[in-house]
Design brief:
The complex is a heterodimer of chains A (about 270) and B (about 250). By secondary structure, chain A is an alpha/beta fold. In chain A, about 35% of the residues lie in helices and about 25% in strands. Chain A has a six-stranded mixed beta sheet with strand order 6-7-8-3-9-10, with helices on both faces. In chain A, strands 2-1-4-5 form a four-stranded antiparallel beta sheet, covered by helices on one side. Chain B is mostly helical. Chain B contains ten helices and no strands. Classes of the chains: A alpha/beta (about 270), B mainly alpha (about 250).
């Protein structure tokens, strides 16, 4: 119960990034400032093509910002580091490996002291947490889209990363499967606390999962709007249909519209 | 059992129809030999068939092996570097477009009398192209997310290659290898047929031609077909072992 503000794990400070294309310079992110506190979970929403995926690459160190800095746990990011876990819209499971071997993949790369039995136990523990018990030896092609995405989340968390980066992980799933996975995310967060950033196009998803929602402006993206979401630790789906939630969704929708219009004009 | 019996019956039916076709039309054996002519022709030269069959087989396999090495190497270069792909690809296409039958006399003159080397060279030249192309396509079409998953953990380029790029390219590689097997046989025989005093089934075919022993020529063709089937299924077995995951169960 500290009175002080919790340490920020992800800090994005005055970040500007520009792509060099054949037709000229394409600024995607401009003077972006945001942070995610330790064990916090922030959703980032914004118009299509506003630079959200670029943001995930900057945080994971796959890209270097032209200007500004990204800090993870107080350290400036210049290269990729093993303290990051990632999951994308495409679950990108390796088809030639069983589910459990897929989940164990990061443990083959990230330096760790686990022996092979402990690695397996760790993967099994995560798989049962997301409801994939008994599917350890299946191949990805034998699983449904929702199940593959569950496995992909396990792989992102298996090496206990400090930071979890989710780039629209539920975007390709049907609405009911998506809601199931929202519950899975809450369970995971309870059992395996992480600091996370979630890129999404789904406003309901953003307020259901995250503690804070950041709305990015149209390209080049900067922080346009920011809201804290208060809810119980493991919320129920019904909470999305309270008037408080609906008002929040409306105001977020409004912000997206503003951002879209701005992106239209900048074209 | 069914997957052995069905092809076996198909072969028997094929041979019977062939025999009938020749018999009904009363073709002489210089027009078309019938299966019943072929067995005696084979029996008469059975020692040569096994000796020369072995020559053809090992030359083809060695040529194919070199084609795999070079093809995979070229494919890797083209798959990883866009600049090198743009540089090498037209050369490769041009090289592949040259009919290998026209290269045969050039190679034969270049290395006169070195039958093994000549034959292996042609087998290699004719079969490396599909392998190079398939490997380069497999590598260059690797979805960026696959790479990012490992790169974001700080994995090195070679680790990404061994863990993801290589296994993911294997199905394409084996598809190309199946094509390359038959091509390599064609290459081997092109050279064996024109090499004077050479060995191999191609040479046996040529001697059948010079001695007007038509059933022998047909027997050689059948022997080549059998070798081709054998080598092809070796590749199929290797594919099952190394890339069996790509095959989806039908249920």
């Amino acid at each position: 119960m500290s009175l002080y503000k919790k340490k920020d794990t992800i800090i994005i400070k005055d970040v500007t990034h520009t792509y060099k294309t054949e037709t000229g310079l394409l600024p995607v992110i401009k003077n972006l400032n945001m942070s995610v506190p330790e064990n916090g979970f922030t959703a980032v929403v914004g118009p299509s093509g506003c630079g959200k995926s670029t943001l995930t690459k900057l945080i994971s160190g796959l890209l270097q910002p032209d200007e500004g800095e990204v800090y993870l746990g107080g350290e400036k990011i210049t290269t990729p580091r093993p303290t990051v876990g990632m999951a994308f819209q495409n679950p990108v499971l390796l088809e030639w490996r069983t589910i459990i071997k897929n989940v164990m993949l990061p443990l083959e790369i990230v330096p760790n002291k686990l022996n092979s039995l402990e690695k397996e136990q760790r993967a099994k523990q995560l798989l049962s947490l997301v409801g994939l018990e008994g599917f350890e030896e299946k191949k990805p092609s034998e699983l449904s889209g929702g199940m593959r995405q569950r496995a992909s989340l396990c792989r992102a968390l298996v090496h206990k990363p400090e930071v979890l980066i989710l780039d629209e992980p539920f975007g390709a799933l049907d609405a009911f499967t998506r809601e199931d996975l929202w519950q899975v995310m809450h369970n995971l967060r309870k059992e395996e606390p992480f600091t996370g950033i979630l890129i999404t196009h789904d406003l309901r998803e953003s307020i259901f999962l995250a503690d804070e929602v950041v709305v990015l402006s149209g390209r080049p993206a900067s922080k346009q709007f920011f809201v804290k979401v208060t809810k119980s630790k493991i919320p129920k789906l019904e909470s999305l249909y309270t008037s408080k939630s609906i008002d929040l969704l409306k105001s977020l929708r409004k912000q997206i519209e503003i951002a879209q219009n701005q992106q239209e004009q900048n074209k | 059992m069914r997957h052995i019996l069905v092809p076996l019956y198909a072969i028997i039916i094929f041979l019977v129809l062939w025999e009938l076709l020749v018999w009904v039309n009363e073709w002489p054996n210089y027009k078309m030999a019938s299966p019943s002519d072929i067995w005696p022709a084979f029996w008469k030269f059975k020692v040569l068939f096994f000796q020369y069959g072995w020559d053809t087989l090992w030359r083809t396999v060695v040529g194919l092996f070199i084609a795999v090495l070079c093809g995979v190497f070229l494919g890797m270069i083209m798959g990883f570097s866009k600049v090198l792909r743009e540089a090498i690809y037209p050369l490769l296409v041009g090289f592949n477009a040259i009919p290998k039958a026209t290269v045969v006399p050039i190679i034969a003159l270049m290395f006169v009398g070195q039958h093994d080397l000549n034959t292996i060279l042609i087998a290699f030249m004719i079969s490396f192209f599909p392998i190079a192309v398939s490997v380069s396509i497999g590598l260059s079409t690797l979805e960026p997310e696959y790479r990012d998953i490992l790169r974001s953990l700080g994995a090195s380029k070679s680790l990404i290659f061994w863990k993801i790029a290589l296994p993911k390219t294997l199905p394409e590689f084996f598809g190309a290898l199946k094509v390359a097997v038959t091509l390599a046989f064609i290459g081997t025989n092109l050279m064996e047929i024109v090499s004077p005093h050479g060995r191999g089934l191609g040479a046996l075919f040529d001697s059948g031609k010079t001695n007007s022993d038509y059933p022998l020529m047909f027997a050689v063709l059948i022997a080549l077909a059998l070798l081709g089937i054998g080598l092809y299924y070796v590749v199929v077995v290797l594919e099952k072992i190394f890339a069996g995951w790509a095959e989806r169960s039908s249920d």
